[in-house]
Amino acid sequence: IQMVPVSALKGDGVDKLLEAIVLESELLELKAHYEGQAQGVVIESELDKFRGAVATLLVQNGTLKVGDIVVCGSAVGKVKSIIGSDGSKLKSAEPSFAVEILGLSTVPDAGETFQVVKNDKEAREIAEFRESKLKDRKVLKQRDESIGNIFESMGQSNKKTLNVILKSDVAGTSEAIVAALADVGNDDASIKVVASGVGGISESDANLALATESMILGFNVRSDNAAKKIVESEELVLSYHSIIYELIDEVKARLSGLLDPIVKEEIVGTAEVLEVFNSPKFGQVAGCMVIEGSIFKSKPVRAVSYTHLRAHETREDRVWRLLVE
């Protein structure tokens, strides 16, 4: 295994790293077909306000060209532009190229495979088939979650749940945050991600938050005017973040706020009842001797009865202690 020291700050060793990768690929005889229709994997995706759906693709086989019809998961589109890693526009991309493409109908998920097809009809058929499979998986997942929630709720009627709607700038970040939120919580409180997606916070997100009583989290995104009106009028919880750790800390704080306060009893004084008198005005009056601490007029008290008898005492003369909270 080759070891190449590099520095991201100074740029040292990058040339040697590239040479080592080329040498390694030659020794392992890593090859790919550069002719024919391109196929590969989606590295990242985002919804740009001006450019629309943008996907970063890694070409693994074939050559990707401007004008090709691409299917990425359930997203389809015609490649309008290919942008290289240095920001330059390319006419084609061969295997091992990582490029951004424009022209997709929706934002694909990171990790989805992509392929170039012959025509729009074939692309729509593949996309519709994948969409139907995705819907079936969602239905099964919701059914399993509902059944799981029934069993989890048995004996946990007091468990608190914080509903969250997450919107982020790119798909990879959204997946990372959802995974981090899944680890937050305990037996008394937990987090449920109602929905997560890529792009700005829209009116539909605000309506969903209103219907599910959820808080909205925006990571490197902002809400549109329609969503802002709903958030302000309905007083929804909306929070913007650009650092994942700060987002997690806020969610933890809000989750802690759902828990019931822990009431601790603090004894500030102890007294022993020596005699009990009957008063026509106040009822029974206890004559007490302060043994420990202080006795305050405004503090509540609790009387604790001792069933055992002390020396030279009758059952009627049992000793009472007032524990002052």
Task: Give your account of this protein's structure.
By secondary structure, the chain is of the alpha+beta class. Helix content is 29%, strand content 34%. The protein contains 6 helices and 17 strands. Strands 1-2-8-5-4-9 form a 6-stranded antiparallel barrel. A 4-stranded parallel sheet has the order 11-10-12-13, with helices on both faces. A hairpin with a 3-residue loop joins β14 and β15. The C terminus is likely disordered.
Helix content: 25-40%
Run of helices and strands: HEEEEEEEEEHEHEHEHEHEEEE
What's the tally of helices?
6
Instruction: Give the overall silhouette.
Output: elongated
| Cα end-to-end separation | 69 Å
Give a quick account of the main beta sheet: strands, pairing sense, barrel closure.
6 strands, antiparallel, barrel
For the secondary structure, the number of strands is 17
Average pLDDT: 83
State the strand order across the main sheet.
1-2-8-5-4-9
Low-confidence stretches: 318-325
Gyration radius from CA atoms, angstroms: 33 Å
User: What structural category characterises the helix and strand content?
Assistant: alpha+beta
Features:
325 residues, alpha+beta, 6-stranded antiparallel beta barrel, 4-stranded parallel beta sheet, 6 helices, disordered C terminus
TL;DR?
By secondary structure, the protein is α+β, with helices and mostly antiparallel strands.
